[in-house]
Design a protein that fits this description.
Elements (H helix, E strand, L loop, with lengths): L1 E4 L12 H6 L10 H31 L8 H29 L6 H6 L9 H22 L12 E3 L2 E3 L7 E5 L1 E4 L2 E4 H21 L5
Parallel strand pairs: 1-4
Antiparallel strand pairs: 2-5, 3-4, 5-6
Helix pairs in contact: 2-3, 2-6, 3-5
Length: 213
Amino acid sequence: MYIEFAVPAITAYANGFADYWTRSPFIKAPSDRYAINALTTTYVRLVEAALVGYRAGTAALKEFWGTGATFKLGAMNRSVSHFEACISDMLRATNCFRRLRGDSQHDPLSLALRADKAAFATDTVWDRIRTMRNEVHHLDEMIVEENIVAGQVFALVAGGPETVHPTEPNQTIKTIDRLVIGEQEILFTELATWLEEMAAFAGKIAGQLPSSR
């Protein structure tokens, strides 16, 4: 069996959002309202964490499916944990973002965030992320309560379709292209697109802050 990966790399903001962390606490906060600042800081922090989780999960996933003589089960376990944390951080960040955009007092930052479309914050995408995150937590409860049946998958799985190799007899190609848990699945291409969009908004928030000059 050959393994192919359809897991896009996310190269933007590889070092996080240093501009935000150097400006917001020391020069000027995003807003005159403490509640808005708390939402904004939490959003940027969680997006940064989600990016770290996605990259670490991807690296561990490829380590597991490497060319070594034995499977590195520790790498797969790390990959699962990183992606579970990534999904949870994305949901929490999206909740903060939706609250920011919907600010009833029309904070200037809120108005600035409304100027651009945010697909990741739509009800449809939010519900998919929320459902997958809830499924992870639901399985945790089932494990603790010993309600898992034999053979039942009890963690997030990175998988994808397996097809017949076009030129080599008796060989197949497995494409790792999605996260699956229960009946819920999200393609890595979707996950990367949403994360890149979330990161762009975090970068925009940092860009709204004045510099020390």
